[in-house]
Model the fold of this input.
Amino acid sequence: MATIIRISVLAVLTASGLPHTFAQDAPADFVHKVVPVLREHCGDCHTGEKKKGGFSMNTHADWLHGSENGPVFDPKNPSHSKVLEVIASTDPDTVMPPVAKNKPRPSLEQIAILKNWIQSGAPWEPGYAFKKPAYQAPIAHRRPAIPATAQKNAHPLDLLLDAYFQKNGSKSPAQCDDATFARRVHLDLIGLLPEPEFTHQFVESKAADKRDKLIGELLDRKTQYTEHWLTFWNDQLRNDYGGTGFITGGRKQISAWLYAALHANMPYDEMVRQLVNPNSDTEGFAQGITWRGTVSASQTREIQYAQSISQSFLGLNLKCASCHDSFIDKWKLTDAYGLAAVFAEKPIEIARCEKLTGKMATASFPFPEVGQIDASKPRAEQLSQLADLMTHRENGWLARTIANRFWAALIGRGLVHPVDAMGTEPWSEEILDYLGGHLAENNYDLKSTLRLIATSRAYQMQSVIREKGDDTAKYVFLGPRARRLSAETFLDLLWQITGTAPSNQDAPVRRGEASKELLSATHLTALPIRLAPEPASDQPNPEKATNSEKLAKKGRKPMKPGTALVGFAKNITLPAKAQKISGILFDHGKGRVLINGVLLKAPVANRFNLVTELHLTQSFKPRDNTIMVLQPAPPEGVQSDPFLLELECTLEDGSKLRIASDETWKASGSFSEEQIKPGKLSATNPEFDNAEWLPVKAEMGAFASLQTPEKPLEAFVRSIQPAPPARAALLKSDLLMRTLGRPNRDQIVTSRPQELSTLEALDLSAGKRLSELLAHGAQTLAKRPWKDPRALTNWLFQYGLCRAPSEAEMEASQELMGTDTPSRQSIEDLLWAVLALPEFQLIR
Amino acid sequence: MNSLPLDPQNTRRDFLKKLSAASVSALLATEPRVFGAIEQVIQPKATADACILLWMAGGMAAPDNFDPKRYLPYEKGRQIKEILSTFPAIDTAVDNIKICEGLHNIGGIMDRGTLIRSHVQPDLGSILHSRHQYHWHTGYVPPQTVACPHIGSWMAKVLGPRNPVMPAFINIGQRIEGIGESEEIKAFTTAGFFGAEFGPMNLPFPEEAAQSVRPPEGMEPGRFENRYKFYKKLLDRSPNRDVLSDYQRESMLRSFENAQRLLSSKEKDAFDLTLEPKETYQKYDTGRFGRGCLLARRLVESGARFVEVTTEYVPFLHWDTHGSGHETVERMHKEIDLPIATLIRDLESRGLLDRTLVIIASEFSRDAMVEGTAGSLAGDQAAHKGDTMEEPKHYGLHRHFTGGSSVAMFGGGVKKGFLYGKTAPERPCLAVENPVSVSDLHASIFTAMGISPKTAFEIESRPFYATQDAKGVAVKELFT
Done:
């Protein structure tokens, strides 16, 4: 129905610079006259999801809202509307619509229609929109109605999915078989393959709840879970162990914190809180990457912060809006700068496309529905407010964003796709809403979301058979998609199958967890010790002279403040050669260890909070050794910080002995930084023998006030038990991992390549690194006692593919390997062929 | 070689059909799409089918190479400010072009190409190899919110390989592991958001290139073939072949098939420098760079689209002269002069030069006194900061300079014996005529290759252009 308003134009338009010869006395027929003109000349840039210059006229509200430079239409004084100026402009740079070669200008009649309409108050057909309004994603949590069922303990996602299939008129696809499930769920939750024996038992088991139980067991394997999901989180938080920025100190890792957070399954809201309002462990994420020299206005530290937190946690892309009001979604320059202003140390001026605007940014939160930042408060308080708003109960975006990422990781495509466009309509609002609400209600327990998805039928269906181009059509859920192994998982599996995982790691994290049996059977024998302050005495007592007095007596100058060290030492005689020496140093975080006068390198790398893991097998000699712990000297009259050290030595004959701090240690305050430089100090050095050695004080309760996330005993047990095999996620990227799609983490990465390129295949076929790994793996496998090549083939298929080889496959492998003991070469070739199979490379 | 398809559209179609089904697949969620909705991009008619970039990594000083200025020899105690060039000028095959002593062979081919003396780069507050090399190779100043593709990846993406068996983008001479600033080099040695399909094939050591298209070391060709036959048997005999047979699987297999095809093709011989006749090999054998030029020629002859050959960036080595500049550049001249001239002559004699664009470029120039450009905040990065030369190692152009550098271009439709732009005769030797920015230089290169500088792909719902913000304009004067 058209809104027709009869008006008279009495005067020639004031804003017009164009000849205008006919006054109108006609109805402003919005639907029949105005809309076609607007559609023809303005629609390309300002309707639907397009909003060039931040201006949309898709709906009446959009029209009234105006552009990034303010309103375009003045309802109180229509004749002075900005829009009239630009339509009538004779300046080719400002005229609207813009001058374009391949498009004719609006005719005079069309311009007259527009002017007439605007001057008459721009009446709008109620509810009219040029294009269907863009999907408006909700902000708050929503609780979908779960369809009623007679089934007991029905999985809520299954019920929602049933309703989805019913609505689509499609049948629910069949579930995958047990072996497929075992492989899939192992690879998805811990990134490793099930052992062949396990798969066999799992398939044979008749237990009705075996799948649920397996999911629970895998999620409980803290170390394997952490080291698998580390890749996902490193990508998402652009954390790495090397990369651009590190060279000039413009970047900081969050590895130790992230590893510990995943290991302890830290609630997600707490993770976000600590990343948004950072502390010294987490600030690497908030600070982003600082390049030397000047950077564009959209890449300052503050703007990076705004982009990073909105992308990682809210699935919002503020990259467009960091430079100008976005043309593609509703985000504005002020939204990006609002977040940036929270993090900025100083007031920041808004720049639009690299040009300063003269306007200062005001701290703000992009969802005012949830709450707002009080920009008058100091920075620390604003950051805390932002952390509160991000993790607010009413902020459903946070939970839905990570739930959608998990869904995409496990199912192969997000409910919202792509995963960084959370304003987009999901294919099932109900499932997404349920997942988000569930996460929030479960105290943001990330594993609860993984469990919820993995236990659903959606996850356990047969994977879909893909067809070329099937992503261009409207997405219909018919089961999970096969996903390609990540570069890290591919290497992990090669190492797992062949038992050749390397022992090194680049990630500065403490790995693994203490075994429960060992924990209950182990006790610490060490006592915290410290250098007791010398009691104040009225009379000078030569036996109790202060360190500086003693030094003065010996004719030596007291040391420069800050370079003095106090050393605690003990002579150790090992009855035999040691096979392994490891343990812990527990202190206030400032201690360093010398063995036989040699300072241990980089204790910082192993240091996590207050407990340092020590691996000293190579440092000790047979028989006589001296161990020393050095601390910065305390001010005179103040007692030194306590420390506790305990080592376990396993001797060649298998016997064990402990080295532990106690009252038998001695302390001396006469060391300096200069003295401990390499080569300066040795056990036989007179400096060492001549030091003034004083008794130490043992104090049971010295650490009562120290809070550690992990108890010293647990750290000790972990240090003495065998290290778990290394995982690729803990290593710096190498050429092979790069080839297989491990990204440079200069930007946040939320999806890995799913296709295998020709160059990758070339590297897999002929590359040096992989062929070395295969040769090493085959060498290791060749040492195992295989009955015949059939046994090896059978085992490899069971392990790598979770199925037995067919007789035809077995014959092929026999042609390759013969019937005698398989050669190392033939094992290598078999290994390559199985690892290169799409069946191996894909998680189905 | 001349029978290679020259029409990029056909090649592209061919390429899509034969080689890279994965690249057109809709498998990848973030697969960039050609951004057609913004505006119609009309691709220019190509004047070149292949491109060789000879990269003088580390900052080649224009006044000691292609833009000679006032020359003074070393003399103890001499004021450094008196010196503009440390090499005297020599005549070339073109009357009005003089270049520096040491580049006699290149001087002999100046009549085949165009010399630009007015290439300029931004200062970026601090002139750094990492950022300037990133900028030159991608057209975008880092950091960026998306991973930017290398210009070679643009050519691989838009044009594809000339010969479907060959990788489209080959990068010769640069190690990206185990050297200083390797992370910074990796940041631009990538296809970025285009994805690995369009990334470089890295051949850091030209003499080992043959190994990368051969079975792994220690594997007899017979065994290698046998292994692949066995693999195919396993695929054929898989009990659930029909269940698992889908698009993902097929595209993966196609990639393996392509790799295998290259490894058994006659084109793989192009990678093998030992097959080059001794006489020509010797002309190139001045070092890794020289042998890289030979490899580039062989690869282009066999259908490579874009080849970069670098003198290799390693901090404080090669062109990165912060001390002993004169002595180092003397050595660099010996390394580059004959191979570059031979490359141009070889391409010409094989009838390939007309359709192959060869570019000599560097991330910035150098000066003996001025760091950055006049008025910039760039820090002085010279090792010796005195006003006079006290030792021979003080003789050279040791400071980064972005105000005017030289670029030489040969073949591929550029004018012959042509000089474009000039720098001031006195310090600071800024470009004073026809300055050419990185964007405009890229626009010129892309245009010659038949790619509009406005070509855009969609990433994260926004257009990303071949030249920054589609602003690059080809310098028409460079072309015939």
The first strand of chain B starts at residue 33 and ends at 34. Chain B touches chain A through 85 residues (CB under 8 Å). Confidence is low (pLDDT under 50) at residues 1-33 of chain B. DSSP finds 14 helices and 17 strands in chain B.
